[in-house]
Amino acid sequence: MDSKWTAERIPDQVGRTAVVTGANSGLGLVTAKVLARAGARVVLACRNTAKGEAARREIEAAAPGAQLELEELDLSSLDSVRAFAERFRGGHDGLDLLINNAGVMATPRRRTADGFELQFGTNHLGHFALTGLLIGSMEGTEDARVVTLSSTAHKTGRIAFDNLGGEHRYFRWRAYGQSKLANLLFALELERRLRAADSTVKSLAAHPGYAATNLQSAGPPRLDRVVMSVSNRVIAQTDEMGALPTLYAATEPGLAGGTYVGPDGFAEQRGHPQPVTPNKAARDKQVARRLWEVSEEMTGVRFELGAGGGGVRAGGRG
Question: Of the residues 39, 40, 126, 129, which has the fewest C-beta atoms closer than 10 A?
Answer without folding.
Answer: 39
